[in-house]
Amino acid sequence: MTLTAQSGGTGADFTALPDLAARALGGAVLAANDESFAEKESLVRPYPVVHQAHTFGHKGQVYDGWETRRRREDGHDWAIIRLGVGGTISGIVADTAYFTGNYPPAVSIEACTVDGHPSVAALQAAEWTTIVAPAAAKGDSRNEYEVEPDRRFTHVRLNIHPDGGVARLRVHGTPIPDPSGFADLPLDLAALVNGAMVTDASNTFYSNPTGAIMPGLAASQADGWETARRRAEGNEWLDVALAGRGIIRVAELDTTHLKYNAPGWASIEAFDGEEEFELLPKTVLQPDTPHRFILESARPATAVRLNIFPDGGMARLRLFGRLTAEALEEMRERFEGTK
After folding, report:
1. Cα(182)–Cα(153) distance, rounded to whole angstroms?
2. Could you tell me what percent of the chain has a pLDDT over 70?
3. More confident site: 1 or 98
């Protein structure tokens, strides 16, 4: 069995890929030319858009989104967003939820690559590439725009033509981290920020399983992966393609916040290409507890399957180990765009 990361592009459901601009990954709205009616930071809020009609503040109706003034001169409005982790972009969602008479009739997206910690001035002076040419947008809608993932980017610029409001911006793609910070250090081979990807799950009823490999501690029961109650024989599972081929030494299975819906047991199968081997035998888990297991296997793996018995949730999955020299070189080639 081989588990590989999902890829975007023509014909793929790019919204299944992680949001590289997610606030939980470190994404942020760095600048906007105007935010007269509603603040730019709303664009990367993690929760669904909320709205209460006929709720007025000093600037008019309160909106959960970014809204600019009515433009009286030529041009358009824009906002610059830093991706939490650089990567290839497969699609953009510009959600205009609840913007009905004040949405932009068209949007366009540009992207650039500036590593490190650039200032807004440095970003404005950078070379930007148009990845979504001006395209029609509808009000109170999820406007989806497919992108050909041809190279790695670190920032995007949302342009609205000529003005108006956008509630959320999602930048779906595949993470490509900078391997220069890895060297031969141990790292979490299952972390999204390091290039790992959730490739499949048996059940995603309550939450997006990508939550299990996001950075930081889970903020609530909803921040992780949780299944419906299983009424049939068997168990639920989660597949993760690792950041690269590596040897896993420590597994952390965190059930924090899952007090009455934690799995009773868990196990981990590992895969090195088509070869399968046991990484963690079926083990009892406790509710609301971060578990740490020292592993004895010295075999490298490219992917894992986390089994939970019979169902429940997992706040975070961490798999600490080292990349092989070949995997580290392959990551360098991806980062530099030579592979």
Report:
1. 20
2. 96
3. 98
Selecting from 3.40.50.620, 3.40.50.300, 1.10.1040.10, 2.60.120.260, what CATH number does the domain 14-175 have?
A: 2.60.120.260
Place of tokens 């000529």: 162
In the structure, what pLDDT confidence band is assigned to residue 186 with cuts at 50, 70 and 90?
A: confident
pLDDT in tens, 187-218: 999 999 999 999 999 999 999 999 999 999 99
Candidate CATH numbers 3.40.720.10, 2.60.120.260, 3.30.70.260, 3.40.50.720; the one for domain 179-327? 2.60.120.260
**In the chain, where the domains are located:** 14-175, 179-327
Residue 6 pLDDT > 50: no
Q: Which candidate, 108, 149, 113, places its Cα nearest to that of 14?
A: 149
Question: Which CA distances in Å does 231 have to 65, 121, 195, 310?
Answer: 40, 57, 34, 9
H or E element in which residue 244 lies: strand 236-254
SS3 of residue 223 by DSSP: coil
Q: Are 165 and 38 in contact (CB under 8 A)?
A: yes
Residues 6+ apart with CB under 8 A from 58: none
Rg (Cα) of the chain, in Å, rounded? Answer: 21
Q: What is the pLDDT of residues 122-142, one digit of tens each?
A: 999 999 999 999 999 999 999
* Residue ranges of E strands in 69-217: 77-95, 106-112, 129-136, 142-146, 152-161, 165-166, 168-175, 187-188, 197-201
Confidence of residue 219 (pLDDT cuts 50, 70, 90): confident
Q: What is the pLDDT of residue 10?
A: 38
14-175 and 179-327 have identical folds: yes
- The kind and range of the H/E element at 29 are strand 28-32
